[in-house]
Specification:
binds Phenylacetyl coenzyme A; about 300 residues; 13 helices; mainly alpha; 1,2-phenylacetyl-CoA epoxidase subunit PaaA; Aromatic_CoA_ox/epox; PaaA; PaaA_PaaC
């Protein structure tokens, strides 16, 4: 029977069909999806922190309103993604426990500090830009709930990207000091954003299987290249210099060549030793502990409702 189920699953994958929660799926496929979707959810939730840091210091009412909305959207994406992961048989408690004990990963990019207001613009432009580049192909991922979640998430990320770029355009028309802040933020974030796409294809243990299963549609290196090619002209319009002396159009390849990424620094950060890892996790754990009374109250309310219905 198992062979028949496997054959049916393979046929669905080969035909570029969708796998749904009640369908039979290989355990390894389920496990990979739980890993990726939960880590994606954690990234959205931890990703609220670097920008949330600036809500109280936004330079105008308009910027503050936009930033609150954006950070709130990221929270929504996280909850949406936790729900998608729950359809695979894991629980929110299990996922949060993995995050809070440091077992689960989340995107490396959120382990760097936000030092000036331009960082908020640069996160919108580059971090959300990289996130969209990675998430558009996930809209075609073989697991239905994840693919559908990505469609809505991408629409919101696209607004996030534009608000960031627009904030930077305004700063670049300002004083020399403001322009310097934008350049400084770009200098600090550029290389970290390139690393968001994950290790080079040759060092990416999950890629081959992820591609076979139709979870990954475009490889880490190909997405990174697409992101660079799309971003260079945007940097020119903005008037900033991307901090890579090797960045150069390659006529033959039809792509930009670029310099070497510091993968040692990337792995140190992924493995918990980036500049902000400890602080980010501590903030999440504290928020979870301080929210215990809300969860208890919600459970008590649900129990009461149920009792009333049974009477
Ligand atoms: N950071 O074999 P691969 C956002 C890990 S966007 C940390 O290539 P895979 C929006 C990887 O998990 C950011 N870890 O793995 C936002 C694996 O370890 P594992 C979130 C990384 O899965 C914007 C190991 O390295 N987006 O939050 C990273 O095939 C602004 C080997 O790597 C997503 O999560 C990294 N950068 O490919 C929010 C998208 N890269 O799990 C707020 C969904 C790799 O075996 C503000 N995820 N690792 O222990 C994916 O597309 C994939 O999981 C990749 C990695 C492409 C990230």
């Amino acid at each position: 029977e198992d062979a028949a189920l496997q054959a049916h699953f393979d046929a669905v994958i080969d035909a570029d069909g969708k796998v749904e929660p009640r369908d039979w799926m290989p355990e390894a496929y389920r496990k990979t999806l739980v890993r990726q979707i939960s880590q994606h959810a954690h990234s959205e939730i931890v990703g609220m922190l670097p920008e949330g840091n600036w809500i109280s210091r936004a330079p105008s009412l308009k910027r503050k309103a936009i930033l609150i909305a954006k950070v709130q959207d990221e929270g929504g994406h996280g909850l949406y993604l936790y729900s998608a992961a729950e359809t695979l048989g894991t629980s929110r408690d299990q996922m949060l426990d993995a995050l809070h004990t440091g077992k689960a990963k989340y995107s490396s990019i959120f382990n760097y500090p936000t030092l000036n207001w331009a960082d908020v613009g640069v996160i919108g432009w580059l971090v959300d830009g990289a996130a969209i580049m990675n998430q558009i192909p996930l809209c075609r991922c073989s697991y239905g709930p994840y693919a559908r979640a990505m469609i809505r998430v991408c629409k919101e990320e696209s607004f996030h990207q534009r608000q960031g770029y627009e904030a930077l355009l305004v700063m670049m028309q300002g004083t020399a000091e403001q322009k310097a802040m934008v350049q400084d933020a770009v200098n600090r974030y550029w290389w970290k954003c390139l690393a968001m796409f994950g290790p080079p294809d040759a060092d990416s243990p999950n890629s081959v299987q992820g591609m076979r299963w139709g979870i990954k549609r475009i490889s880490n290196d190909d997405l990174r290249q697409k992101f660079i090619d799309a971003t260079v002209p945007q940097a020119e319009v903005l008037g900033v210099t991307l901090p890579d002396p090797d960045l150069k159009w390659n006529e033959e390849r039809g792509h930009y060549d670029y310099g070497a990424i510091d993968w040692d620094e990337f792995w140190a950060t992924v493995n918990g030793n980036g500049p902000m890892n400890k602080e980010r996790l501590a903030t999440r754990v504290k928020a979870h502990e301080q929210g215990a009374w809300v969860r208890e109250a919600a459970l008590a309310h649900a129990a009461k409702q149920q009792q009333r219905q049974q009477k």
